Amino acid sequence: MTATATGRDAPARSLGLITVVLATACGLSVANIYYCQPLLAEIAHSLGTSQGAAAIVVTATQLGYAAGLILLMPLGDLLENRKLSSRTLLGTALAALLAAGSPNLPVFLALSVLIGLTAVVAQILIPLAAHLAPEAERGQFVGRVMSGLLLGILLARTAASLLAAAWGWRSVYLVSAVLMLAMAAVLRRVLPAHVPPHSAGYRSLMASVGRLAAEEPALRRRAACQALMFATFSVFWTSIAYELIRVHHLGQTGIGVFALVGAGGALAAPIAGRLADRGYGRIASGLVFVLAVLAVGLAGLAARNLALLALAGVLLDLAVQAHQVLSQQEIYALRPDARARINTVYMGTVFVGGSLGSAASGVLYARWGWAGPSVLGVLLGCCGLAVWAGSEIGRRRG
After folding, report:
1. What DSSP state is assigned to residue 266?
2. Which of 33, 36, 131, 246, by CA, is between 20 and 30 Å from 336?
3. Do 153 and 210 lie in a common domain?
């Protein structure tokens, strides 16, 4: 059996390189979910369909990702992680390459599902990062890796817009295929092997996912809070493009540039990690929910001020990223032998929250304009703050 390496026995000088590789792999893999969003008009024209029909591409990619969270991510507790991650990236590369040559919409939709399914490798690597990190520095280590994932989410739309403007939408998927091949090779070369202790088989593995959710109240609480936080994030970013076009008359390039403001949220990850490592995770969680509520409230009140909208975007992204790192630092300490399955419960719940937030945001914007999503975002943030406060009261009484 392949030897297992951990942060305790891996050379200290290699941890920096491993961090960079994990962060880069997470960012590039998760970006595949978001590339299609600014390309829908070009895809519709190229494949001879309507923009409304092309919008299904976003849903298809998200459904594939949801399936990956449920079906593939638990394998991180069963299969050797380095091989699993690199081979999954090869699958992404093949799907992206075929997508670049799609002759029609049905073929492209099917390949979009496969792209989303294999993009889940980012969520396989994050528990691996927690395993490789020295215990006293786990929060900081995971925070740095999460910075890469967040940058992938935030910069994907901008990168796709610029590539499409230069060489057409198909170039985005060709570039992605090359990057996935390169990252698969890098992971195989740089990462230490990690063989999980679970060996009872896939069926037993999947059955244990439900038991984990039932047996770990901290996991349920953190998942619910982050689902509300991510729903708040999705409400803002789903509707902000409409507002930027309608009120501020920005084009596709301008929207892409505006999306860059969220990259500042990546700065929160290592800071949140250090706070968690020093025992301030609980109080920091409450503070970032307050920050999220203030950010969305500011966006609602200052819709006609582009600079204040940008500031609200930065503050909201800081809150989302910080709470994610704080949550993961806590849940990965619950069952070190089941981190991938814990991440399945956690990210599955978070993904549902984000999807519902996006759907509700579009409906509310069509009905009430920017006021609708703004009010919803504030309410979601307040609900998250209430869940946090309730858990803190219960813990102190206990």
Report:
1. G
2. 33
3. no
